[in-house]
Automatic annotation (TrEMBL):
Residues 9-26 have a biased composition (Basic and acidic residues). PROSITE patterns: VOC. InterPro entries: Glyas_Bleomycin-R_OHBP_Dase, Glyas_Fos-R_dOase_dom, GlyoxalaseI/FosfomycinResist, VOC_core. Transmembrane segments: none annotated. Residues 40-160 form the VOC domain. This is VOC family protein. It comes from Streptomyces himalayensis subsp. aureolus. Residues 1-39 are annotated as: Disordered. Gene3D superfamilies: 2,3-Dihydroxybiphenyl 1,2-Dioxygenase, domain 1. It comes from the Bacteria.
Length: 171
């Protein structure tokens, strides 16, 4: 019985109907949307098991400059460090020495992936650097490269401009 359930294909038309219902109820044309109350994403914070390894990966392989390395105000002895990912945005990390945080896991309410937009010529260059560094990655639609960082967080480099997804405006 379990195998039959696993082999059964989901009713995609029902999923699309639900998306349509939600779009119809909540999505407004851009000229009818209020301005956001937010200024932007200050930083997204991930967890690092090894500060130096994380710095080498993000700064040396992905070419995101390290901008600061300070003590985490919430956990004495822990580091809080930041990388410039362009456009005034930061990717941040904490380490938690002495605290067993366990391996990376995707859970409801957790992180699925971080998508970072790069110019198309930089995208090709960075995919080459991933290959040179031996980082397993998957290229999708010739604009997205998915891979995991040294601690297992899934990262996407996307050549689409900010506010676009596969040629569609999303902002």
């Amino acid at each position: 019985m379990k195998k039959a359930q696993a082999d059964a294909q989901p009713d995609r038309s029902a999923f699309e109907a639900e998306r349509r219902r939600i779009r119809d109820q909540y999505l407004r044309p851009s000229d009818q949307r209020p301005a956001s109350s937010a200024r932007g994403l200050h930083h997204t914070a991930l967890i690092s098991s090894d500060v130096e390894r994380t710095v080498r990966f993000y700064q040396d392989v992905l070419e995101f400059p390290l901008t600061e390395l300070i003590e985490n105000r919430d956990y004495p002895g822990s580091s809080h460090f930041f990388f410039d990912i362009g456009n005034g945005n930061l990717l941040a990390f904490f380490d938690f020495p002495g605290l067993d945080v366990g391996p990376y896991a995707e859970v409801l309410g957790g992180l699925h992936h971080v998508a970072i937009s790069v110019e198309p010529h930089r995208w090709r260059h960075l995919v080459g650097k991933l290959e040179q560094a031996g980082v397993d990655h998957v290229v999708h639609s010739e604009v997205s490269a998915y891979f995991r960082d040294p601690d297992g967080a899934r990262i996407e480099l996307i050549a689409d401009p900010l506010g676009e997804m596969y040629g569609n405006e999303v902002l």
